[in-house]
Amino acid sequence: MSLGALQLCLLFSSALFCVGLAGALSRSNSILVLLGIELMLNAANINFVAFWRYGPQPAPATGILFVIFSVAVAASEAAVGLALVISIYRQQRSIRLQEATRLKG
Amino acid sequence: MMTAALIGILLLTLAAGAVAMSLRNLIHSVLLLIVCWLGIATFYLWAGAEFLAFSQLLVYVGAVSMVVLFAILLTRRSRIDVAVAPDSASRALWALVAGFAVLGVLAYGMLNAKLPVSTSPVPSVSVRDLGAQLAGTHSAALLVIGLILTVALLGGVVIAASGRADIMEEKGK
Predict the structure, then answer these.
(1) Per-residue confidence of chain A (105 residues) as pLDDT tens digits?
(2) Which of B11, B40, B119, B167 should be substituted to probe chain A, the one whose Cβ sees the most A Cβ atoms within 10 Å?
(3) Staple B29 to which of A86, A98, B20, B102, CB 3.0 to 4.6 Å?
(4) For position B49, which CATH number holds?
(5) Which of A45, A1, A3 lies closest to B117, judged by CA?
(6) To the nearest whole angstrom, how far is the Cα of A43 from the nearest Cα of chain B?
């Protein structure tokens, strides 16, 4: 069985997604969890570009435009997430996720 | 087709991401993630999406990494302490199991799928085309995304600037 370039791209993006998933699940530092989520978002963007490059194309630049919007959303997500991390640190002097249990009933 | 150099760069990208997710020093993690994001920008450049490669450089390598570094420096416990306490081994093990399970399912699915292969030549999209589409067909989406960014950044400033009341009062005295 020969691997096409599209399948190689998809394998790369799913490997990157799983690296981010394992990182986000295994660490208890909230900054590292956010970085793992960023890696997963990047893997999704790679998929958009791979399908735009190799898939049948209804419109010439759809994949690129989608990635531009997705990068903007990811950047705002990172900004809000890190602001939350700083706020939690100022409240309880720690950014471990296990200690952020204030909302627990 | 993919050249050996590109495959090497992609493997380096994956390795940098994996090592970054497993290190204890947060600063080293972010520096390795910058390498990972650079590798992704190389992939975009190879795929023919030059504008995306440059925006990846600007947004991730330039901006997000700096914001994360500042967050690390603002939330460390002491002046020299940037290493985090080791996490529990069973949690790491289960996370690895989950990651490999998801990877297995995804790889099985895509290796057995009949993916349509494009016979058309490499699409060339100039920045001019992108700008015309962004200002024409997708102008409403562009406005909405600008609004989302503005609201999110303002909200981030408000969240990060509002502190605990008693600390604020102590500082005021």
Answers:
(1) 457 788 888 999 999 999 999 999 998 888 999 999 999 999 999 999 988 888 776 667 888 999 999 999 999 999 999 999 998 888 888 888 888 777 776
(2) B40
(3) B20
(4) 1.20.120.1200
(5) A3
(6) 9
